[in-house]
Sequence to fold (356 residues):
Amino acid sequence: MSRFTIYQDNYADATIVSNLFIDEYMKEANDAQLKIYLYLLRMMSAHLSTSVSDIADKFNHTEKDVMRALKYWEKNRLLSLEYDDAKNLSGIRLLEMSDRKPNSDIVALAPVVPIPTKNAIFSESPALEKVAPEKPAYEKPVYSLDELKEFKNREETAQILFVAEQYLGKTLSAGEIKTILFFSDKLKFSADLIDYLIQYCVDKGKKDFRYIEKVAISWAEEGITTPKQAAKSARKYDKTVYDVMKALGKTSTPTNTEAAFVTKWVKEYGFTSDIIMEACNRTVLATDKHRFEYADSILTSWYKGNVHHKADIKLLDETYSRRRTPAKSTSPAGQFNQFMQTDYDFDALERELLSN
Fold:
Protein backbone atom coordinates (compact mmCIF):
# COMPACT_ATOMS: atom_id res chain seq x y z
CA MET A 1 0.00 0.00 0.00
CA SER A 2 1.37 3.44 -0.94
CA ARG A 3 2.38 5.95 1.71
CA PHE A 4 0.65 9.30 2.03
CA THR A 5 1.40 12.77 3.37
CA ILE A 6 -0.85 14.52 5.87
CA TYR A 7 -1.16 18.28 5.61
CA GLN A 8 -3.46 21.11 6.66
CA ASP A 9 -4.48 24.34 4.96
CA ASN A 10 -4.02 26.49 8.06
CA TYR A 11 -3.22 26.17 11.73
CA ALA A 12 -5.56 28.76 13.20
CA ASP A 13 -7.16 28.05 16.55
CA ALA A 14 -4.96 25.00 17.17
CA THR A 15 -3.90 23.12 20.29
CA ILE A 16 -0.28 21.95 20.20
CA VAL A 17 0.43 18.38 21.28
CA SER A 18 4.02 17.30 21.91
CA ASN A 19 5.46 14.61 19.65
CA LEU A 20 6.94 13.02 22.75
CA PHE A 21 3.43 12.60 24.12
CA ILE A 22 2.30 10.88 20.92
CA ASP A 23 5.40 8.68 20.71
CA GLU A 24 5.84 7.67 24.34
CA TYR A 25 2.74 8.38 26.43
CA MET A 26 -0.29 7.91 24.22
CA LYS A 27 0.15 4.16 23.70
CA GLU A 28 -0.07 3.41 27.45
CA ALA A 29 -3.06 5.63 28.27
CA ASN A 30 -6.68 4.57 28.13
CA ASP A 31 -9.51 6.41 26.42
CA ALA A 32 -10.51 8.57 29.41
CA GLN A 33 -6.92 9.51 30.24
CA LEU A 34 -6.23 10.61 26.65
CA LYS A 35 -9.40 12.66 26.32
CA ILE A 36 -8.89 14.44 29.61
CA TYR A 37 -5.22 15.27 29.01
CA LEU A 38 -5.92 16.64 25.52
CA TYR A 39 -8.83 18.64 26.92
CA LEU A 40 -6.53 20.16 29.54
CA LEU A 41 -4.15 21.21 26.76
CA ARG A 42 -7.04 22.76 24.88
CA MET A 43 -8.27 24.71 27.92
CA MET A 44 -4.75 25.86 28.77
CA SER A 45 -4.03 27.10 25.25
CA ALA A 46 -7.29 29.09 25.26
CA HIS A 47 -6.73 30.37 28.85
CA LEU A 48 -10.08 28.94 29.90
CA SER A 49 -11.08 27.51 33.26
CA THR A 50 -12.94 24.27 33.90
CA SER A 51 -13.90 21.91 36.73
CA VAL A 52 -14.01 18.22 37.50
CA SER A 53 -17.78 18.20 37.07
CA ASP A 54 -17.58 20.04 33.74
CA ILE A 55 -15.04 17.56 32.37
CA ALA A 56 -17.09 14.61 33.62
CA ASP A 57 -20.18 16.03 31.95
CA LYS A 58 -18.40 16.78 28.67
CA PHE A 59 -17.03 13.26 28.22
CA ASN A 60 -19.86 11.36 29.92
CA HIS A 61 -17.57 10.18 32.74
CA THR A 62 -18.05 10.21 36.47
CA GLU A 63 -16.05 12.65 38.57
CA LYS A 64 -14.05 9.73 39.93
CA ASP A 65 -13.05 8.84 36.36
CA VAL A 66 -11.74 12.36 35.90
CA MET A 67 -9.76 12.24 39.12
CA ARG A 68 -8.31 8.84 38.20
CA ALA A 69 -7.08 10.30 34.91
CA LEU A 70 -5.56 13.34 36.62
CA LYS A 71 -3.81 11.11 39.16
CA TYR A 72 -2.54 8.93 36.32
CA TRP A 73 -0.93 11.86 34.51
CA GLU A 74 0.45 13.21 37.77
CA LYS A 75 2.07 9.83 38.43
CA ASN A 76 3.62 10.03 34.95
CA ARG A 77 4.84 13.56 35.74
CA LEU A 78 2.97 15.27 32.92
CA LEU A 79 1.09 17.50 35.34
CA SER A 80 1.11 18.62 38.95
CA LEU A 81 -2.03 18.88 41.05
CA GLU A 82 -2.18 21.78 43.50
CA TYR A 83 -4.39 21.82 46.60
CA ASP A 84 -5.60 24.56 48.92
CA ASP A 85 -5.51 24.43 52.73
CA ALA A 86 -8.77 22.49 52.79
CA LYS A 87 -7.21 19.84 50.52
CA ASN A 88 -9.43 20.82 47.60
CA LEU A 89 -7.91 20.75 44.14
CA SER A 90 -7.15 24.39 43.34
CA GLY A 91 -4.92 24.25 40.26
CA ILE A 92 -3.18 22.15 37.65
CA ARG A 93 0.24 22.77 36.14
CA LEU A 94 1.19 21.02 32.91
CA LEU A 95 4.85 19.99 33.07
CA GLU A 96 7.74 19.71 30.65
CA MET A 97 7.73 16.17 29.28
CA SER A 98 11.51 16.04 29.33
CA ASP A 99 11.39 16.66 33.07
CA ARG A 100 11.24 13.00 34.13
CA LYS A 101 13.59 12.94 37.15
CA PRO A 102 11.74 12.30 40.43
CA ASN A 103 13.59 15.04 42.33
CA SER A 104 13.82 17.61 39.57
CA ASP A 105 12.18 21.02 39.80
CA ILE A 106 8.64 21.34 38.49
CA VAL A 107 8.38 23.58 35.45
CA ALA A 108 4.99 25.02 34.59
CA LEU A 109 4.18 25.43 30.91
CA ALA A 110 1.45 28.00 31.45
CA PRO A 111 -1.09 28.95 34.11
CA VAL A 112 -4.72 28.00 33.66
CA VAL A 113 -7.15 30.87 34.13
CA PRO A 114 -8.74 30.35 37.58
CA ILE A 115 -12.44 30.20 38.26
CA PRO A 116 -13.52 33.31 40.18
CA THR A 117 -15.07 31.33 43.04
CA LYS A 118 -12.40 30.77 45.70
CA ASN A 119 -9.72 31.09 43.00
CA ALA A 120 -10.09 27.38 42.29
CA ILE A 121 -9.74 25.76 38.91
CA PHE A 122 -11.42 22.61 40.10
CA SER A 123 -14.07 21.99 42.73
CA GLU A 124 -13.43 18.60 44.25
CA SER A 125 -15.66 16.79 46.71
CA PRO A 126 -14.05 15.04 49.70
CA ALA A 127 -14.96 11.67 48.23
CA LEU A 128 -12.61 12.38 45.34
CA GLU A 129 -9.58 13.12 47.47
CA LYS A 130 -8.59 9.49 47.82
CA VAL A 131 -5.75 8.45 45.56
CA ALA A 132 -7.24 6.03 43.08
CA PRO A 133 -5.28 3.03 41.82
CA GLU A 134 -3.84 3.17 38.33
CA LYS A 135 -6.29 0.46 37.25
CA PRO A 136 -9.91 0.34 38.41
CA ALA A 137 -10.59 -2.05 41.27
CA TYR A 138 -13.41 -3.56 39.21
CA GLU A 139 -12.21 -4.36 35.71
CA LYS A 140 -14.77 -5.89 33.37
CA PRO A 141 -13.59 -9.27 32.05
CA VAL A 142 -14.01 -10.47 28.50
CA TYR A 143 -16.92 -12.88 28.55
CA SER A 144 -17.17 -15.72 26.06
CA LEU A 145 -20.31 -16.52 24.09
CA ASP A 146 -20.80 -19.63 26.22
CA GLU A 147 -20.71 -17.52 29.40
CA LEU A 148 -23.16 -15.07 27.86
CA LYS A 149 -25.48 -17.90 26.82
CA GLU A 150 -25.35 -19.44 30.30
CA PHE A 151 -26.18 -16.05 31.84
CA LYS A 152 -29.16 -15.51 29.53
CA ASN A 153 -30.52 -18.92 30.43
CA ARG A 154 -30.66 -18.16 34.16
CA GLU A 155 -34.17 -17.90 35.52
CA GLU A 156 -33.86 -14.37 36.92
CA THR A 157 -31.88 -12.99 33.97
CA ALA A 158 -34.82 -12.83 31.59
CA GLN A 159 -36.63 -10.46 33.93
CA ILE A 160 -33.56 -8.25 34.35
CA LEU A 161 -33.07 -7.96 30.59
CA PHE A 162 -36.77 -7.31 30.00
CA VAL A 163 -36.88 -4.54 32.59
CA ALA A 164 -33.69 -2.98 31.19
CA GLU A 165 -35.13 -2.94 27.68
CA GLN A 166 -38.31 -1.28 28.98
CA TYR A 167 -36.32 1.46 30.69
CA LEU A 168 -34.02 2.03 27.71
CA GLY A 169 -36.71 1.65 25.06
CA LYS A 170 -34.65 -0.68 22.86
CA THR A 171 -33.40 -4.24 22.44
CA LEU A 172 -30.13 -4.83 24.27
CA SER A 173 -27.02 -5.61 22.27
CA ALA A 174 -24.71 -8.51 23.14
CA GLY A 175 -22.21 -6.03 24.58
CA GLU A 176 -24.87 -4.46 26.82
CA ILE A 177 -25.99 -7.89 28.04
CA LYS A 178 -22.35 -8.65 28.89
CA THR A 179 -22.24 -5.42 30.92
CA ILE A 180 -25.28 -6.56 32.91
CA LEU A 181 -23.52 -9.90 33.40
CA PHE A 182 -20.58 -7.91 34.78
CA PHE A 183 -22.89 -6.21 37.27
CA SER A 184 -24.15 -9.58 38.46
CA ASP A 185 -20.96 -11.63 38.20
CA LYS A 186 -18.19 -9.29 39.35
CA LEU A 187 -19.96 -6.48 41.18
CA LYS A 188 -22.30 -8.95 42.88
CA PHE A 189 -25.35 -6.79 42.25
CA SER A 190 -28.74 -8.36 42.90
CA ALA A 191 -31.49 -8.23 40.28
CA ASP A 192 -33.24 -5.53 42.34
CA LEU A 193 -30.11 -3.40 42.50
CA ILE A 194 -29.51 -3.73 38.74
CA ASP A 195 -33.14 -2.72 38.20
CA TYR A 196 -32.68 0.34 40.44
CA LEU A 197 -29.34 1.21 38.80
CA ILE A 198 -30.77 1.38 35.29
CA GLN A 199 -33.86 3.26 36.46
CA TYR A 200 -31.68 5.74 38.36
CA CYS A 201 -29.53 6.49 35.31
CA VAL A 202 -32.46 6.73 32.90
CA ASP A 203 -34.25 9.14 35.24
CA LYS A 204 -31.15 11.36 35.02
CA GLY A 205 -31.37 11.26 31.21
CA LYS A 206 -28.39 8.89 30.88
CA LYS A 207 -29.04 5.83 28.71
CA ASP A 208 -25.46 5.26 27.62
CA PHE A 209 -24.21 1.93 29.01
CA ARG A 210 -20.74 3.36 29.51
CA TYR A 211 -22.21 5.83 31.96
CA ILE A 212 -24.39 3.18 33.62
CA GLU A 213 -21.32 0.98 34.08
CA LYS A 214 -19.34 3.80 35.70
CA VAL A 215 -22.16 4.51 38.15
CA ALA A 216 -22.31 0.80 38.97
CA ILE A 217 -18.58 0.68 39.68
CA SER A 218 -18.80 3.78 41.88
CA TRP A 219 -21.59 2.12 43.86
CA ALA A 220 -19.54 -1.05 44.23
CA GLU A 221 -16.60 1.00 45.49
CA GLU A 222 -18.89 2.59 48.08
CA GLY A 223 -19.97 -0.86 49.22
CA ILE A 224 -23.57 -0.42 48.03
CA THR A 225 -25.37 -3.77 47.79
CA THR A 226 -29.09 -2.88 48.01
CA PRO A 227 -31.45 -0.41 46.33
CA LYS A 228 -32.08 1.17 49.74
CA GLN A 229 -28.37 1.93 50.17
CA ALA A 230 -28.20 3.32 46.62
CA ALA A 231 -31.22 5.54 47.25
CA LYS A 232 -29.70 6.80 50.49
CA SER A 233 -26.49 7.67 48.66
CA ALA A 234 -28.44 9.49 45.96
CA ARG A 235 -30.41 11.43 48.57
CA LYS A 236 -27.28 13.26 49.63
CA TYR A 237 -28.70 15.84 47.27
CA ASP A 238 -32.46 16.26 47.40
CA LYS A 239 -34.73 16.72 44.41
CA THR A 240 -34.31 20.51 44.44
CA VAL A 241 -30.60 20.16 43.68
CA TYR A 242 -31.27 18.02 40.61
CA ASP A 243 -34.05 20.37 39.48
CA VAL A 244 -31.59 23.26 39.69
CA MET A 245 -28.92 21.26 37.85
CA LYS A 246 -31.38 20.57 35.05
CA ALA A 247 -32.58 24.18 34.93
CA LEU A 248 -28.99 25.42 34.61
CA GLY A 249 -28.25 22.96 31.81
CA LYS A 250 -26.10 20.55 33.83
CA THR A 251 -26.54 16.77 33.62
CA SER A 252 -23.62 15.62 35.78
CA THR A 253 -23.78 14.55 39.41
CA PRO A 254 -23.85 17.67 41.63
CA THR A 255 -20.58 18.60 43.28
CA ASN A 256 -20.43 19.53 46.94
CA THR A 257 -20.03 23.19 45.96
CA GLU A 258 -23.11 23.12 43.72
CA ALA A 259 -25.17 21.38 46.39
CA ALA A 260 -24.00 23.94 48.95
CA PHE A 261 -25.33 26.76 46.77
CA VAL A 262 -28.78 25.17 46.64
CA THR A 263 -28.75 24.42 50.36
CA LYS A 264 -28.02 28.09 51.06
CA TRP A 265 -30.83 29.27 48.77
CA VAL A 266 -33.36 26.92 50.37
CA LYS A 267 -32.35 26.80 54.05
CA GLU A 268 -30.56 30.09 54.65
CA TYR A 269 -32.47 32.32 52.25
CA GLY A 270 -35.74 30.40 52.62
CA PHE A 271 -36.60 30.61 48.92
CA THR A 272 -39.27 28.40 47.39
CA SER A 273 -38.57 26.44 44.21
CA ASP A 274 -40.46 28.88 41.96
CA ILE A 275 -38.20 31.77 43.01
CA ILE A 276 -35.07 29.65 42.53
CA MET A 277 -36.28 28.52 39.10
CA GLU A 278 -36.89 32.15 38.11
CA ALA A 279 -33.26 32.95 38.98
CA CYS A 280 -32.11 29.92 37.01
CA ASN A 281 -34.13 30.96 33.96
CA ARG A 282 -32.60 34.45 34.04
CA THR A 283 -29.15 32.94 34.46
CA VAL A 284 -29.47 30.71 31.40
CA LEU A 285 -30.56 33.69 29.30
CA ALA A 286 -27.64 35.79 30.56
CA THR A 287 -24.61 33.48 30.49
CA ASP A 288 -23.33 30.00 29.67
CA LYS A 289 -20.43 30.08 32.14
CA HIS A 290 -20.26 29.93 35.95
CA ARG A 291 -24.03 29.65 36.12
CA PHE A 292 -24.21 28.66 39.78
CA GLU A 293 -22.22 31.75 40.74
CA TYR A 294 -24.41 33.96 38.54
CA ALA A 295 -27.64 32.52 39.94
CA ASP A 296 -26.26 32.97 43.44
CA SER A 297 -25.64 36.67 42.79
CA ILE A 298 -29.27 37.07 41.65
CA LEU A 299 -30.71 35.21 44.62
CA THR A 300 -28.45 37.03 47.07
CA SER A 301 -29.69 40.39 45.74
CA TRP A 302 -33.29 39.18 46.06
CA TYR A 303 -32.61 38.00 49.61
CA LYS A 304 -31.24 41.43 50.49
CA GLY A 305 -34.28 42.96 48.79
CA ASN A 306 -36.63 40.98 51.07
CA VAL A 307 -38.11 38.86 48.30
CA HIS A 308 -40.57 36.27 49.62
CA HIS A 309 -42.87 35.76 46.63
CA LYS A 310 -42.55 36.06 42.85
CA ALA A 311 -44.62 39.26 43.05
CA ASP A 312 -41.82 40.81 45.11
CA ILE A 313 -39.42 40.16 42.22
CA LYS A 314 -41.63 42.18 39.90
CA LEU A 315 -41.57 45.11 42.33
CA LEU A 316 -37.77 44.95 42.52
CA ASP A 317 -37.55 44.89 38.72
CA GLU A 318 -39.77 47.96 38.45
CA THR A 319 -37.71 49.80 41.08
CA TYR A 320 -34.53 48.93 39.25
CA SER A 321 -35.99 50.17 35.94
CA ARG A 322 -37.02 53.49 37.48
CA ARG A 323 -33.53 54.02 38.85
CA ARG A 324 -32.02 53.43 35.44
CA THR A 325 -34.42 55.88 33.75
CA PRO A 326 -33.57 59.57 34.43
CA ALA A 327 -36.48 61.44 35.99
CA LYS A 328 -37.98 64.34 34.08
CA SER A 329 -37.17 67.62 35.81
CA THR A 330 -39.54 70.59 36.01
CA SER A 331 -36.89 73.01 37.30
CA PRO A 332 -35.49 75.75 34.99
CA ALA A 333 -32.16 73.97 34.93
CA GLY A 334 -33.85 70.74 34.05
CA GLN A 335 -35.85 72.40 31.29
CA PHE A 336 -32.67 74.00 29.95
CA ASN A 337 -30.88 70.65 29.89
CA GLN A 338 -33.84 69.09 28.13
CA PHE A 339 -33.80 71.99 25.62
CA MET A 340 -30.07 71.54 24.97
CA GLN A 341 -30.54 67.82 24.39
CA THR A 342 -33.23 68.40 21.76
CA ASP A 343 -32.17 67.76 18.18
CA TYR A 344 -32.46 71.14 16.41
CA ASP A 345 -31.42 72.37 12.95
CA PHE A 346 -29.35 75.32 14.21
CA ASP A 347 -28.55 76.58 10.66
CA ALA A 348 -32.24 76.90 9.80
CA LEU A 349 -32.89 78.54 13.15
CA GLU A 350 -30.13 81.13 12.50
CA ARG A 351 -31.52 81.94 9.04
CA GLU A 352 -34.95 82.50 10.52
CA LEU A 353 -33.60 84.88 13.17
CA LEU A 354 -31.64 86.94 10.57
CA SER A 355 -34.66 87.30 8.33
CA ASN A 356 -36.67 89.00 11.12
